[in-house]
Amino acid sequence: MNIRNRKYRDNLPQLGDGRFITDGGIETALIFLREIDLPLFAAFPLVATNEGVAQLKAYYQPYIDLAIANRAGFILDTPTWRCSRGWAEQLGYTVQDTQFFNEASVRLMAEIRDRNATADTPIVINGAIGPQDDGYNPARLMSSDAAEDYHRHQVEVFARSQADMVSAVTLTYPEEAIGIARAAAKAGIPAAISFTVETDGRLPTGASLREAIEITDAETGGSPTYYMINCAHPTHFKHVIGGDAAWMQRIYGVRANASCMSHAELDAATELDDGNPRDFGRAYIELQQKLRNLRVYGGCCGTDHRHIAEVCRSLQLANDEAAAA
After folding, report:
1. Does residue 10 fall inside a structural domain?
2. SS3 sequence, the chain?
3. CATH number at residue 302
4. What is the pTM of this model?
5. Contacts of 10 (CB under 8 A, 6+ apart)
6. What are the angstrom distances between the C-alpha of 191 and each of 11, 93, 104, 181, 217?
7. Structural domain span for residue 276
8. Would strands 73-77 and 20-21 be described as parallel, antiparallel, or unpaired?
9. Is residue 94 part of a domain?
10. Tens-place pLDDT, residues 40-63
11. How far apart, in whole angstroms, are the C-alpha atoms of residue 53 and residue 301?
12. Are 64 and 74 in contact (CB under 8 A)?
């Protein structure tokens, strides 16, 4: 392992003034657009085969090309949202297997970064972590101590790797966020925490976004590097963001869904709802206006490189108009 490839662990560039983009919804894109079978929405097994690696490289490349064309940075997520022990066991893998998959995923991301990064497009390797239970409607909630114990192994594997940071996405309640943040702090790796919300702008378990962020910060000494919102359409949460409150300044990223449907409707859907990419891109102009520290722009369920291209296009048009005013 080349520890020197931890280029940004001590100085994450997305905390500066530049714009960073991400990929879209990797699982929905692979399943519906590339027709790859992903049991339990798990993409991590792909890193174990030559064909799977080729599919992943082909998936990420259009996004990286967009970042380069727009002179933006790129957050390169590992395909490991499901690569924790509980989900792996359901797929027939052991805890030791998850170590292999997480490590192999980071090595692949390092290879992709080394081939594509430029002076204008820094690429941050991000170890992606998902919830222990369902990301829409969890049946079992953990205490913060139980969450720390559950997620510790994956976090520590990333901490020993070339990953610059970890992010926990589609979290539905603060206790799990607290556990992950504590595990990351003890392992010495920066962590971003991303909550998902329902159509009313509240977490699936009922907490407000403000409560979730403030509770997590209070219980961890503010250890998360920043927060994000993901797996919800902008219309679901734009009414609960904005202003100068301290918790609002902690939000640095948004990875929205393409569809306006609720989580329950998405769960029941048999076809991909990719929404309207042009409208999706325009929505980020308002989000940029409401979130003063927004630096990371990306997608989640139903989005692909078309949606991120429209985000880049809309933001550039807005910047051009502002400069001309």
Report:
1. no
2. CCHHHCCCCCCCHHHCCCCEECCCCHHHHHHHHCCCCCHHHCCHHHHHCHHHHHHHHHHHHHHHHHHHHCCCEEEEECCCCCCCHHHHHHCCCCHHHHHHHHHHHHHHHHHHHHHHCCCCCCEEEEEEECCCCCCCCCCCCCCHHHHHHHHHHHHHHHHCCCCCEEEEEEECCHHHHHHHHHHHHHHCCCEEEEECCCCCCECCCCCEHHHHHHHHHHHHCCCCCEEEEECCCHHHHHHHCCCCCCCHHHEEEEEECCCCCCHHHHHHCCCCCCCCHHHHHHHHHHHHHHCCCCCEEEECCCCCHHHHHHHHHHHHHHHHHHHHC
3. 3.20.20.330
4. 0.96
5. none
6. 13, 26, 20, 6, 12
7. 16-324
8. parallel
9. yes
10. 999 999 999 999 999 999 999 999
11. 21
12. yes
Has residue 2 been placed in a domain? Answer: no
**In this predicted model, what pLDDT tens digit does every residue of 187-217 receive, in sequence order?**
999 999 999 999 999 999 999 999 999 999 9
End-to-end, the C-alpha distance of the chain in Å comes to 51
141 in a structural domain:
yes
How many domains does the chain fold into? 1
How far is Cα 81 from Cα 49, in angstroms, rounded to an integer? 18
